[in-house]
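Batch job 17 of 40 flagged for manual review because the log was empty.
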Amino acid sequence: MSISVSTGQEANLRRKANRLATEASPYLLQHAYNPVEWWPWSAEALAEAKRRDVPIILSIGYSACHWCHVMERESFEDESIARLMNELFVSIKVDREERPDLDQIYQLVVQLMGRGGGWPLTVFLTPSQKPFYGGTYFPPEDRHGMPGFPKVLRALSDAYRERRDEVDGQADELTKAIAEVGRGPARGELGVSGGAAASYVPGPDLLERTSRLLIRRFDDSHGGFGRAPKFPNTMPLEVLLRRGILEGDGVARDAARLQLESMRAGGIWDHLGGGFHRYSTDERWLVPHFEKMLYDNALLLRAYVDGYRAFSSPAFAETAKAIVAWVDREMTDPEGGYYASQDADSEGEEGKFFIWDEADVRGALASGSASDVVAIKAAIDYFGITAAGNFEDHGRPTFKTVLHESRPPRAVAAKLDLSVDEVERALARAKKAMFEAREMRPKPFRDEKVLTSWSSLMIGAMAEAGAALGELGMIASAERALAFIEAKLVVRDGDGRVRVSRLAKKVHEAPDDGTGGASEGGTNAGVWIVRSPGFLDDHAYLANAALDVYEATGDPAKVRLAQGLADAMIDAFWSEGEGFFFTPKDAAPLIVRSKDPYDNAVPSGASMAVRVLLRLGALVDSRYAKLAETELAHLAPSAVENPFGYGQTLCELDRVVRGAVDVVLVGPRTDARTKDLARATFEAWLPNRTIAWVDPADPSSREAAALLAEGKPSAAEPAAYVCRGRTCSLPVTTPEALRALL
């Protein structure tokens, strides 16, 4: 199996390896030849710190992280800095994608210290894992008001040796604070918990109340929340979309549309290859950090499909299709899994693969034909390519441009004295040629881990997009990826419990590197290595993805998979009176057993657990819904106070408050007429929706939708029922009649 290997990995063959060389994580392997004597997180590393009685440097990052690469080049590759680290500390390197539990806990350190979190995360621990100092990126010398890393290392080592009582006191205080935050909001019934929203019981004004708070943070000029740096923040965006479309709030509706349009026009969008970059460094969505993450694109795929249905916007549909094209081309393993990320850097420079100048454009369209001449002019004007450029590399001008929609095609047409059709044909020609030219450049490194949680987000989005857009290939991709995850990452133990693990592709840098024998394919071959047991988000995301595939296909086996995962999730992560924890009950103990109530770059594990339980509660067993409502009662007061941090929870609260719209399709699922009814259902934007399939020829289909199938007899031709609460419509047999009901 051929996979990508970074230039750095090839050079590493000539250097001395440290303990990370036997790991599977691409991020850890990127550091396997540093002069730092790195340890992976392990009992052995913790024991070594206790044996030497020295503090721990915990460094957490991920393979596509630009500033992680910068700190590696500046500090971890520096012999003198490495010597300090080796003499004064035990240094532990963690891939946050493999150990989100550690990342979740220790990110709180820098936040509690009044600094923003992020990566690389650099936290200093006592040998008992208690943090006493933390930060993110440290420069190699004093710079821009930041202390140099060597100064930090010496000061903290001195403090640990000479002022141990102060260090231990600071560590105890931070650990206590982490435990308080990690437990999440205080438990209570709706209207009982403390805080300004304590007396509020979610009702019909839920979205109105929370949207007002979100709009205060909204950028009316460019879309999105806050100023620079600016992230997509799709969960609060959906709250605004629900308020705007379902409840007719023009301000919320226009805000949601502005954000979708502005991101699509900006440089955060890859105008040649599709897919969104991680975030924008400015408020205009113009200059991004260039890494592309699977989870961002999964969430944005769903957002643009929703936008297409809500606004009838062909541009949003095309954006969704382009995201899928990127996933198919760049991020899909031959066996069906979805890869984790693409790097921000190539050839040692951030964004080099993506930026352009006029000479680059002319080189891509070099035939000299009249068509190429027009295409060059149109591309330079449309993408805003100038001699000065708009991209700086760490403050140094590059005279290169991040492609963006500088002006719409009609304005380009007016400037060039052409018709809009002529300009659009010229731009299509330019984009094709520029994409092909860019494909000849050295590509950014691709992290070929398959992460259950992130892959599940993409599986669900693919299934939804394919059903909404009538693209069967997208649904097939989702089915294939789900089968891959189920086959390789869902393991049924002897006690019947389902455990979900992460999976990484190990690059063999020699025919046999001592980590599992020679690989069949030679130097660049890889083998799949199953990693740690899964967390709450793995179970919740995957169970929701299985239901998304079920709704798109009608396959009852997917409901059984979702139900098994939900049962395992409840068994491993639910505690009566305390709710859902992020780590399973049998996990190795850390300084705190944390929860996951807050949305970050992805929806919180707790909110997605609620989502799948509400869906299963509508389909098969009401006990799931009751458990979900118990967790929502705990989360609701905090969600109303802080809608930005609880967007997904608010969407699930809206489902309970507003009620679901359930569509029951009765008929052979291979029948074209049944499929037409399903297509009509998916064309409508129904965020609180459940689709149930009842195939007369398959008794298991009734079992998979036992609650909604009740009282829905088979008939001579396929029919659909629309149910709101316990009230269902009479059966309808045409897409037109179904659309009228929806």
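Reviewer: the log was empty due to a logging misconfiguration, but the result itself is present. Confidence is low (pLDDT under 50) at residues 1-7, 188-197, 508-524. Unflagging and moving on to job 18.
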